[in-house]
Amino acid sequence: MLKTFKIIITGQVQGVGFRPFVYTLANRFQLKGMVSNNESGVIIYLSGEEKKIHSFYKSLIKNPPKISRINTHLTEEITYKSYSGFKIIPTRKTKKLNLQLTPDFAMCEDCKKEISDPKNSRFNYPFATCVNCGPRWAVTKTFPFDRHHTSVEALGMCRNCQDEYNNPQNRRFHSQTNTCPECGISLSLTDAAGYELCALKTDVFNKVAHLISKGNILAIKNTAGYLLCCDANNPIAIRRLRSKKNRPKKPFAVLYPDLSLLKYHLTIHKKQEKAITSSERPIVIISKNNFKGDLAMEDLAPGLNQLGVMLPYTGVLQLLANELTMPIVATSGNLHGSPILSNREDSVRVLSKIADYFLHHNLEIINPQDDSVVKFSNKFQHQTMFRRSRGYAPNYFGEIPQSKEKIMAMGSHLKSTICFLPNDYLYISQYLGNLDNYDVYQRFTKVAEQFVHLFEQKPDVVLTDNHPAYQSTQFGVEAAKNWHAKHVQVQHHKAHFASVLGEHKLFNERVLGVIWDGTGYGDDGQIWGGEFFDYQHKEINRLAHFEYFDWLAGDKMAQMPKLSLLSLSDESMEESTANKFTKAEKDIYSALKKSNTLKTSSVGRLFDAVASLLDICDVNSYEGEAAILLENCIKACKIKKCKTYCSISDDGNIPTQIILKNLYTDWKNGTSKEQVITNFFYTLASLVFETADRHHYTNIAFSGGVFQNTTLIDMLIEMAKENFTLFFNSNLTPNDENISFGQMMHYLNLKT
Known about the structure:
- Helix content is 32%, strand content 19%.
- By secondary structure, it is of the alpha/beta class.
- Strands 6-13-7-8-12-9-11-10-14-15 form a 10-stranded mixed β-sheet, with helices on both faces. A 5-stranded mixed β-sheet has the order 4-1-3-2-5.
- The radius of gyration is 27 Å and the shape is globular.
- 52% of the residues are buried.
């Protein structure tokens, strides 16, 4: 007996070749009906033998398209309907969007082979895509994901592309971003003055590679924004780029032309290789121990024993890689601190002061994104996300509570993101940056407005940090008024804690929260950053903290580690700061210490103090430099040889000054710098477990920028053994990028 069933699939199912996959599968099972995208996902109608329909359903759920992610699926029998065949029906949007969006995907192997094959019609065409790869979020204007909802709409399909699009046997069947050299995106190679170089289309990447090999800096428009590139073997070119970009020491990412050269130069383990070749294709930070090659390592990553590397993930980068014999620098196309640029006019205006040449193209980028960054710890290969952007944004795949309210969380200030809950799904924007920068702030506000436009929903609730000077807070306050929404503040470190609780679904557990970072406005008006929290019964309460020390000279303290040393040192340590300040400076800061009422518990500033004490870093040229250089000093971490510099005080707090004083004594007594730093990390880890033991916790959650330190993470994992269960941010960064998500989790799950 013939029957008809309706199947509804939700999740990351648009822009991933789901409909053509369903079409092919339905024909294989000899079923009739139709499939279409809608505002909630994919809807399928099938008529045929019930046994075949169930076999189809089982096969679809078990083996969906490789870059899709099914969130929910359901099937129900409906009134029988006869169909003449199986068809893909154009999207009919009748309601507001309620689906997961689609991130960008790295170029697949099939497209990679085509653009490198002289016999193929797409040879040397850098914008070849199919249902399995290519830009998605970068070119999206609105959803459901159809061509007319993207910037690719401006390019009409030629007859050959249309034939591919209509052919069920072709992997470009219903590929919304399908283009070719005849109808597609065009390149333009110019000098900094805008003069176009006379290069044939088939020769342009050879020309670009030649220019790079001669020491030039090129601004190359990729599918998510411009990249600044130069020869990674050429120290002079790298120094020029550093000087012009105003980035004196922060490490540059390096693009390797292929995996074989990368593996010849550097030792990488399986998890690193899996990440670096994934469809997300992030930058992966890898140890440069045993490096074999000619890279200008000290210029690429000054003072560091690690290097951020990536492989080509678009046709633009792949065709360039085909012409290269060496790795190249590939860093975000911007001035240091500004957002990544994506349109020609802005890039020429800003980057002509940096780049010698430009490679432009005419595809409009709707959502510019930096490359994502991940790192794995040495001992346990624990993955830590450093930046979550291209390839991951704007989806969140974890479970969330349902809410009748539409909620927007405005996040933090330094590493801003926006989190929006307009329907059954949660959306987290790409990394946006430091809101002190006007252009970053403009992009931040644009993303907030874009979310509202995209989902046709104004928030009922706006969540912000409780720091009154944060631009995200000020914007959130005004936005709440304009949208007639309720405004709710969430304390910074409680948001960090809630982000881990939310990722690991710990809201029904009793958990110790260890939240360490550089700065955050505390409930008592002081600057927090070294916090222990108790979570139970839907409440977060401050349990203990690092003892306060003076917060000197405002934001200048985060930029000058020697100020943290001065704040924490006493008379017995005067020698440690003797040559770091002029007499006038010391008089001013000493007077500030006597009259200062603003205090901090920041572990980030404690790291700064240790780095300055050991003469590793007195002034940060980029955020977190002192802490990164501290970790960099440790070659091998042997816990059995470590000692601790303090225990918790009788009141349960951490004696911050005693840590530094005992560390100083150890250093003066001749203990090696590496061992002193290892002891410092061991002290911090020991204090976690001492606090957990005192208060009888077995579950411990960690968040905050300090936990980008993978050596400390390895130490914690090793020391926990079977006695404790540790939870870290996994799909999100531990730094302030997770604040918007934490604000959302706090509001949805905790008593307020």
